[in-house]
Amino acid sequence: MKKIVAYLKDAYNELVYKVSWPTREELSGSTVIVLIASLIIALIVFGMDSLFEWILKLLYGIL
């Protein structure tokens, strides 16, 4: 039981005193970058999927 309590105290001290947390501005900037990158990747995947669908329809004579 002492090891668990010591571990929890050490973990708390490290999170409170040793970890450098981002500021609100840094966090919002990173969030915007991730959202834009996700949107771009989603559009690329959608475009590739549509292209492959068109090619397969063309090959199988559905068009």
Notes on the structure:
With 63 residues, the protein is mainly α. It contains 2 helices and no strands. The protein has helices spanning 2-18, 24-59. The radius of gyration is 25 Å and the shape is elongated.
Tell me how many strands there are.
Answer: 0
Rounded Rg? 25 Å
Secondary-structure element pattern, one letter each: HH
Distance between the termini: 70 Å
Residue share in β-strands: under 5%
**Structural class by sheet pairing and helices:** mainly alpha
Query: Which assembly state applies to the chains in this document?
Result: single chain
How is the secondary structure organized here?
Layout (H helix, E strand, L loop, with lengths): L1 H17 L5 H36 L4
The gist of it:
This protein is mainly alpha-helical and 63 residues long. Helices cover 84% and strands 0% of the residues. The radius of gyration is 25 Å and the shape is elongated.
Feature tags:
0% strand; single chain; mainly alpha
